[in-house]
Specification:
It is a single chain. With about 130 residues, the chain is mainly beta. It is built from no helices and ten strands. The protein has a six-stranded mixed beta sheet, with no helix packed on it. Strands 1-3-8-7 form a four-stranded antiparallel beta sheet, with no helix packed on it. A hairpin with a 6-residue loop joins strand 5 and strand 6. The protein is globular and about 40 Å long.
Length: about 130
């Protein structure tokens, strides 16, 4: 059964850190581009970070550059999102998605098929 499961979310104070995990079953993540997306209440879903399949080239949006780092552990079939110096505006449900995408990984959620999305994990940044 194909499944992506996010974990690692929680409540953290501003300036704190969290590491999100995206674990897969039924697919081998190293062959896929992986994107991390988030959706805050009342806002559209947005891409924040992604990693390509071949070469593992990463791409972060400007709002998280220098604070978020995406990485893979192929042996564990897991992709991580290390989030440092968190801000209240980072509060959202975070989702991972996989796509068979050549070239640079996209932040466009429509490029990732619906069946390759996890259910999300809540991140709340608040004092």
């Amino acid at each position: 059964q194909l499944r992506l499961v996010e974990s690692g979310g929680g409540l953290v104070q501003p300036g704190g850190s969290l590491r999100l995990s995206c674990a897969a079953s039924g697919l081998t993540l190293e062959y896929y581009a992986i994107g991390w997306f988030r959706q805050a209440p009342g806002k559209e879903r947005e891409g924040v970070s992604c990693i390509s399949n071949a070469g593992g080239v990463t791409n972060n949006v400007d709002s998280v550059k220098g604070r978020f780092t995406i990485s893979r552990d192929n042996a564990k079939n897991t992709v991580y999102l290390q989030m440092d110096n968190l801000k209240p505006e980072d509060t959202a449900v975070y989702y991972c998605a996989a796509g068979v995408i050549s070239g640079p990984c996209p932040h466009d959620s429509s490029r990732y098929p619906s069946r390759y999305w996890g259910r999300g994990t809540q991140v709340t940044v608040s004092s």
